[in-house]
Amino acid sequence: MNKQDLVAVVAETGELSKAKAGDVVDAMFEAIQKALKKKQEVRLVGFGTFSTSKRKAGKGRNPRTGEEIKIPATTTVRFKAGKGLKDAVN
How do beta strands 42-44 and 68-71 pair? Predict the structure, then answer.
C-alpha cells in the first residue's frame, strides 16, 4: 500500500473527498514528523509507538577500496508495534 492507496481508504472509510482525505493524511504525517523532530514520542494506542534514537559515530570500511571511513553519529526513527497491530497481523 502506498500513500495514494491510504488516501483512498481514508476517503472511503471517512466518507470524505480524496482531496480532503489527502489533507488529513498529510496533516497526520506532519504532526508525527514535528513531534519526532522535538524528540517527543508518538504513541498511537493499539497501533504502535514512534520514537527517536541516537546512533553513535563509528568506523566502517569502503567495500570497494578497503579504505577506513568515519560514520557520523545520527538520530534515527524507531517504530515499535503495539499489541493491537501485532494481534491483527498474526
Answer: unpaired
